[in-house]
Amino acid sequence: MQDCVRIAVVGTGMIAEWHAQAIGRCQCARLVACFDVVPDRAAAFAKKHGIDPVPSLDGLLSRVDVDAITIATPSGAHMEPTVAAAQAGKHVLCEKPLEITLERADRMIRTCEENKVTLACVFQGRTGKAIPLIQRALAAGRFGKLTLADAQVKWYRDQAYYDRVGWRGTWKMDGGGALMNQGVHTIDLLRLFAGPPKVVHAFMGTLTHRIEAEDAVVASVRYANGALGTIVASTTCAPGFPRRVEISGERGTVALEDHRIARWSFLDPTDEDERALREGSADEGLKGGSTAAEAIPLEGHRRQIEDFARSILEGREPLIPGREGRHALELICGIYASARSGRPHVF
Ligand SMILES: NC(=O)c1ccc[n+]([C@@H]2O[C@H](COP(=O)([O-])OP(=O)(O)OC[C@H]3O[C@@H](n4cnc5c(N)ncnc54)[C@H](O)[C@@H]3O)[C@@H](O)[C@H]2O)c1
After folding, report:
1. What are the tens digits of pLDDT across the range 73-99?
2. pLDDT of 8-60, one tens digit each?
3. Domain identity same for 118 and 159
4. Could you tell me if 102 and 167 lie in one domain?
5. Residue 248 and residue 270 in one domain
6. Cis status of the peptide bond prior to 97, with omega within 30 of 0
7. Is a pLDDT exceeding 90 seen at residue 4?
8. Helix 14-24 and helix 39-49: axis angle, to 10°?
9. Most buried among 77, 95, 153, 158, using CB within 10 Å?
10. Same domain, residue pair 192 and 107
């Protein structure tokens, strides 16, 4: 039986470096090739990692020694390589957000399903040890009726971050700004804990950066389960603060600060509480990218790529299948629709 998934990286810019290094630390994955529309970039990346640069996507996808690809192209260029890979029978691990419109994301999901290949979406924050603890508490009904679900992403990116590559902060290729690019990780967690949204009302603005899309958003949400919540996402909050997710109910509240549990309080304590607090606040592998993109730790990508590779070898679903990666996109698109129209958006 095959014990290793052979991976090629598509798009060899900034985050591709995390992919390459993370793959190098995985037991079940091996980096074999890469492709970028800018050949010099692919060549430099390939040289650094001792692999082959392939001059075309078709060439890459026709290689029999490539089982899967990771997609690290700009967000609005995730669909084309995913569809081509699925049609060539290759599995796909795609960077967040899955894509920038629901139509494009749906085409990715559909094509991967039709061709029976795995589609997984990178949200490395989901690999945190605190996440299943919160999910278990929710499933056990420990919150009672869920009342409030809030997310705060007060991050910072300097103008140089946007200027370095032309697509960031554009509607066409980033699909938005602070919410679609940075906030999306936290929206994914919020959606995981609070469930589907019913209505959202939002405001957004471009307050300090020279970019097309927003660098600050606030939104009020009503969830399908009746809970209410707020969302704040920005890249203007110097020097940048840990992101926060807070889930409250009539019987308890849990707060996540970055990857760590900052509050775990229930009116009906159990023997599990001390252990949950200890384990959920001690995951040193993950820290947020609150101050700069370069500060993102490798460990989250390592955990997610290891899971992706194992899911293929074991024939099971990955941690975040494509259709789950779609959830954050749906909420974000609803927030943008409301902010543009000035009216509530109903899902
Ligand atoms: N998970 C995270 O924490 C995280 C962090 C940063 C970026 N990202 C995501 O990763 C993706 C890439 O971001 P980045 O900052 O590395 O961007 P980047 O601009 O540094 O790199 C993108 C690369 O893709 C190449 N490219 C563009 N179109 C292509 C195509 N059609 N086919 C092949 N290559 C193509 C570009 O030449 C460039 O080298 C984005 O979707 C972004 O949201 C995720």
Report:
1. 999 999 999 999 999 999 999 999 999
2. 999 999 999 999 999 999 999 999 999 999 999 999 999 999 998 999 999 99
3. no
4. no
5. yes
6. yes
7. yes
8. 30
9. 153
10. no
The whole-angstrom separation of Cα 217 and Cα 223 is 18
As separate numbers, helices (DSSP H) first and strands (DSSP E) second, the chain gives 11, 14
Do residue 248 and residue 198 come from a single domain?
Answer: yes
Structure-block tokens of residue 217: 């958003």
- Name the band, by pLDDT with cuts 50, 70 and 90, for residue 205: very high
Expressed in angstroms and rounded, the spacing between residue 73 Cα and the centre of ligand 1 is: 3
Name the E strands within 118-259. 119-121, 146-154, 197-205, 216-223, 228-234, 244-249, 252-257
Q: Taking every pair of C-alpha atoms in the chain, what is the biggest distance, in angstroms?
A: 60
Distance 335 CA to ligand 1 centre (A): 24
Ligand 1 lined by 73 (C-beta under 6 Å): yes
- The answer, yes or no, to whether residue 318 has pLDDT greater than 70, is yes
How many domains are contained in the chain? 2
Cα–Cα distances in angstroms (integers) from residue 75 to residues 101, 137, 270, in the given order: 10, 33, 43
Domain with 137, as residue range(s), is: 127-293+328-346
Q: Do 231 and 218 touch, CB atoms closer than 8 A?
A: yes
pLDDT digits (tens, 9 = 90+) for 158-171: 999 999 999 999 99
CATH number of the CATH domain containing 98: 3.40.50.720
CB 231, CB 217: distance < 8 Å: yes
Q: Say yes or no: 289 and 212 in one domain.
A: yes
